[in-house]
Amino acid sequence: MTGARPASNPAAVPALEIADLAKSVPGRQLFAGLTLAVQPGEVVAIMGESGVGKSTLLNIVAGLDTPDAGRIRIGGSDLAGLDDDGRTRLRRRAIGFVFQAFHILPHLSLVRNVALPLALGGGDGQAEAAAMLARVGLGGREAARPAELSGGELQRVAIARALVHRPSLILADEPTGNLDHETADRILALLIGESRDHGAAAIIVTHSERAAAQCDRVLRLGAGGLAPANG
Amino acid sequence: MAEPLLPARPALWLVLGEWRAQPLRVAAAVFAIAVGVALGFAVHLVNQAALASFAGAVHSVAGSADLQIEARTPQGFAESLYPRIAHVPGVAVASPVVEVAATSGQIRRPGSGGTASGRLTLIGLDPFRAVAVTPALVGVRPGRDGAAIDGVYFSAAALAATGARVGGPVTLAAGGRVWETRVAGRLAGVGRAVAVTDIATAQWRLGQLGRLQRLDVRLAQGADPAEVTARLRALLPDDADIATPAGEEARSDSLSRAYRVNLGMLAMVALLTGGFLVFSVQSLAVARRRPQFALLRVLGLRQGALARLVVGEGLALGIAGSILGLGFGYGLAAAAIDLVGGDLGGGYFGGARPVLAVTPGAGLAFAGLGIGVAVIASLLPGREAARARPAVALKSGADGDAGARPRAWPGLALLAAGGLAALAPPIAGLPIAGYAAMALLLAGGVAVMPALARVLLAPWQAMRAPVPVELALRRLWGAPRGAAVALCGIVASTSLMVAMAVMVASFRGSVDDWLGQVLPSDVYLHLEGVETAGLDPAAQARLAATPGVARIRFQRSIAIRLAADRPDVQLSAQPVGATGPVQLPRVGASATPPPGEVPVWVSEAMVWLYDARPGTRLTLPLGGRKVPVFVAGVWRDYARQFGAIAMADEDFTRLTGDATRSDAAVDVAPGADPRRIAAALTARLPPALAGQALVARPAEMRAVALQLFDRSFAITYALEIVSILIGLVGVAATFSGQTLARAREFGMLRHIGVTRGQVLAMLASEGALLGLVGGIAGISLGLVMAQVLIHVVNPQSFHWTMDVSLPWGLLAGLFAALVVAAAGTAVIAGRRALSADAVRAVRDDW
Ligand SMILES: Nc1ncnc2c1ncn2[C@@H]1O[C@H](COP(=O)(O)OP(=O)(O)OP(=O)(O)O)[C@@H](O)[C@H]1O
Ligand SMILES: [Mg+2]
After folding, report:
1. Does residue B431 belong to any structural domain of this protein?
2. For the purposes of burial, counting CB atoms within 10 Å of the CB of A91, is it exposed (0-12), middle (13-18) or buried (19 or more)?
3. Fewer CB near the terminus (10 Å): N or C of chain B?
4. Is residue B723 part of a domain?
5. B102 with B135, same domain?
6. Are residues B37 and B90 in the same domain?
7. A204 — contact with chain B (CB < 8 Å)?
């Protein structure tokens, strides 16, 4: 493990708190009794076999999927107490998402893509988006179309979009899965660095040991829940 | 912070982005709405303009009369009624009027072009009375005061109809007499072709001594109209009736009402088709953007806001389409008035030239309809978008469609409801339920498409086919909803098109047959403007003695009024044989009259309008009396929508005391030349009637009648072409949209070794299969809807029935065109998707 581990502050509210989470899909239990707390500024890597339920876990945390049992608190608010609109608002306010497949809207310029989370809240967000683009190394390309960008550049746009509204929790599902090693390393460094700078907690699902090594903590998902990965 | 229902900025970005990316489909949807709105608005504008000009014409002739006492037959009533009416308490002024149809010069057949038809209405007035009631009709000679009528005053339309000039000579023929006179002046502000003269002159010149056709009555101030009407009614002879302005309006309104409502409904049907197209476009757009929408949900767009976004897109389409449609509609209305006149070819408003006037209310109403249709058509796709699970949709490539077993019952329920609605009676004399039935059938037909597509595709599953066809089949089978959405627009427009085509073909075929039945003779002679005096027995004998005439049958037609608020009914004297009138095509049952009763045979419209079924009795105003007659049978008549009654020649003469005749049907002797005989007959006419005669052979009459038929259906044909266009644009838009969205799939197929040609062949097969399924379903549905038009809508609107005849050639051509168009557009769109552009499309995530 590399990088500075943030000082544990027991008084602070964890950015994310999962307790006794269980989820099954037709025919099989994915996990049960899953418990996790992530502090602000902490970056956690989650690894595991394909099909073990990593994406499902992230979806549940984001309120896009429902667990069978257990409790999730994000920045102190309990997901279970929120209806779909409430979860959506929470997502818009507190969560930033990065996907393996980038998911940049093709018809919008880069700056508008990045500004989306703020615009969805009724704001403008273009100034913040331009600043964020500059931070991820795409300054001056605000008006470009997604089709004019490479895969690595697209993922930078996605990272800018995940951070522009200053969320307290970043969820990244194999953010470097579509990129070559070098690009992947740089993108991941960017994601981790920006999260820390913004004081956001981050969960990064990855299959790459190299990627996991950059995080504060590495956990492995199995049927019994999350366990620390050792070597 | 108050949260917006729909964040405006991203909504705008997304809508504009989508429109930039899919301009063809957006244009198709906008066009579809625009066409529906344009047609509805145009029909409305033309109708309003025509009604206004017609009402204006009625008003200038009726003036400020509070009520009119009208003759129920053209013979009029005895003028001795006038002093008795004038002295009724509560009557301020009564103005006696003589009014007869007149001609000038040689009349021309309607539709033969030109404005100089030679027909006008001659009115005789007592100027001192009339100036108080109908001042517009009292011509004032230039440079002279006072209200004496000296000579004949012509309205502008009358001058045009006769070709006469103010101050010039004119020859008028009416009532079997010819009157050489001069045009003394012009009547301003009278729209109809009217000539006005002094009442005494008119009675003398027109053989109307002692008769009046009308008394225009103005009530004293403070008089109770109901009370006065009751007093007047007590004085009325059997051949006069009281008409109020309201009744007059109802009568002129009912003249063209069914026709107007039908055109309006057709326009609404076009709008409905547009709605289905919007639904199809929106559903596809939602399906294609499922991952984009999922992303927005992940980024924090609420479910409701997403639904509102899709509906908002529909709203924008609707607004754009409606604005365009209002513009088109105005242009269309102006063009229609120029080309076919204010009756839209229906022949209801002779002569009057209407002026278009836009009322903002109507514009808003039609725009609202267009917008409403677009919004409603977007509701379901919007709900669909909101309900999609974002986590699932974001997994790339998920169709969200697989395995969904389509349900048939909602569609079947709608179809059943449509069937029930078709059985309902007319509402307010209009086939409202019939149109509801059409709409329900259409909605039901479209709703069963997913299930039906499976049924229709099932037989092909077992078939061994080349790879491209196989792939096409699998895709259509595996994504029934996607296929159904593509089919929805095809089925909607095809079925409406087929329904209208079958109805018009059946109507035309029936009219053609009917013409053959009612025109069995070799030569026909018709006299116009002879309602009060036609061919007397001596003239009849002279015509019958024309060499080469084997047989001649005389007829007489007069207009009689059975109800004050309904258009006149035509009563004709006919040669009657042992089984009834020899020249009329009978339909339905007949009844034998009890001894001593007068039998009549009525047209189908009489049954609808006056409940004159065989075996019942009618009362006719004949010879100044109310004569009870017995309905002995029904015949088919496509010429008089408001009813016609036939009675035996002898009965007519006996009951009316009128032995003159207005028409003759001539069978020529074997070997004789009908043309020569026609000329000989004309030569033997009394000189006073020669100008009023039209002689024609059945072939010409048939041609003219069918030409009039086609003219009155010109708008229908135009609507049909428009719905074909909408349908094909819809097919093209649907396919190109679906195909472009599948660029990745094609890239993948190419990678696993499917050739470019095979991909195109697959697309062509898909298109052809969809065209095939859509064609079969659309034509079947259209045939069912045609039955509603033929057996419900037409009888309820126009009071006539028709036999079904199918335009096989047209249907086959339509079917072929549909399959070819579907396959063709699929291939064209496929070429685009496979072109260089596609490389980028494959790299896109969406
Ligand atoms: N909608 C669904 N219905 C049924 N089963 C599902 C559904 N979504 C996911 N699963 C199952 O849940 C399991 C976990 O899926 P998930 O996508 O979370 O795996 P993962 O750990 O992210 O795998 P990978 O590393 O390949 O992305 C899989 O076995 C999958 O089959
Ligand atoms: Mg996964």
Report:
1. no
2. buried
3. N
4. yes
5. yes
6. no
7. no
Are residue B364 and residue B261 in the same domain, yes or no?
yes
- The residue whose two tokens read 């004309």 is B682
End-to-end CA distance of chain A: 9
Residue written as tokens 């499309």?
B841
Q: Which tokens in the block code for residue B590?
A: 């007949």
> What is the 8-class DSSP label of residue B341?
T
Q: Going by DSSP bridges, is the β-strand pair B569-574/B549-560 parallel, antiparallel, or unpaired?
A: antiparallel
CA distance, residue A12 to nearest chain B CA (Å): 26
Return the exposure string of B295-334: e unless at least 16 CB atoms fall within 10 Å of the residue's CB, then b.
bbbbbbbbbebbbbbbbbbbbbbbbbbbbbbbebbbebbe
Residue B286 CA from chain centroid, whole number: 38
Is residue B419 domain-resident? no
Residues 6 or more apart whose Cβ sits within 8 Å of residue A89: B3, B300, B302
Domains and CATH numbers, chain A: 21-228 (3.40.50.300)
Torsion of CA B763, B768, B773, B775, to 10 degrees: 140
pLDDT tens per residue, range A135-178: 888 999 999 988 888 888 998 999 999 999 999 999 999 898 87
Range of the domain at B337: 1-66+249-402
- Helices B23-62/B245-288 angle, 10° precision: 180
A85 touches chain B (CB under 8 A): yes
Please tell me which residue of chain B has the smallest CA distance to A146.
B844
The helix, strand and coil proportions of chain B, stated in percent and rounded to the nearest 5, come to 55, 15, 25
Q: Does the Cβ of A54 fall within 6 Å of ligand 1?
A: yes
**How far apart are the C-alpha atoms of A224 and A57, rounded to whole Å?**
13
Q: φ, ψ for residue A25 (rounded to 5)?
A: -115, 160
Give dist(CA B600, CA B194) in Å, integer: 34
Q: Residues in chain A with pLDDT < 70?
A: 1-12, 230-231
pLDDT tens-place string over residues B154-185: 888 888 888 888 888 888 887 777 888 888 88
Quote the CA–CA distance of B134 and B815 in Å, as a whole number: 60
Please tell me the predicted confidence (pLDDT) of residue B176.
73
Q: Is the dihedral of CA A59, A65, A71, A73 positive or negative?
A: positive
Q: Are residues B232 and B263 in the same domain?
A: no
Q: What is the pLDDT of residue A1?
A: 40
Amino acid identity of residue B508, one-letter, is R
Chain B contact for A159, CB < 8 A?
no
If you measure from the C-alpha of residue A48 to the centroid of ligand 2, how many angstroms do you get, rounded to a whole number? 10
Q: Which of B696, B713, B747 is the last residue of a domain?
A: B696
Residue pair B535/B660 in contact (Cβ under 8 Å)? The answer is yes
Complex-level ipTM: 0.86
Cα–Cα distance, B44 to B46 (Å, whole number):
6
Pairing between strand A217-222 and A43-47? Answer: parallel
B445 assigned to some structural domain: no
Indicate the pairing of strand B177-187 with strand B152-155: parallel
Domain count, chain B: 4
User: Distance, CA B211 to ligand 2 centroid (Å)?
Assistant: 100
The reply to whether ligand 1 has any atom less than 6 angstroms from the CB of A25 is: yes
Q: Kindly state whether residues B704 and B843 are assigned to the same domain.
A: yes
The answer to whether B723 and B493 have CB atoms below 8 angstroms apart is yes
Are A119 and B13 inside 8 Å of each other by CB? yes
Is ligand 1 within 6 A of the CB of residue A52? Answer: yes
Give B145's pLDDT tier (boundaries 50, 70, 90).
very low
The reply to whether B12 and B118 lie within a common domain is: no
Residues B690 and B703 in one domain: no
Q: Are residue B106 and residue B212 in the same domain, yes or no?
A: yes
Which residues contact residue B163 at a Cβ distance below 8 angstroms, ignoring those fewer than 6 apart? B104, B105, B116
Of B243, B267, B299, the residue that ends a domain is B243
pLDDT digits (tens, 9 = 90+) for B427-471: 877 888 888 898 899 889 888 887 887 787 777 777 777 777 777
Cβ–ligand 1 distance for A206 under 6 Å, the answer no
For tokens 């307790």, what's the residue?
A: A19
Q: Which ligand is nearest to the CA of A25?
A: 1
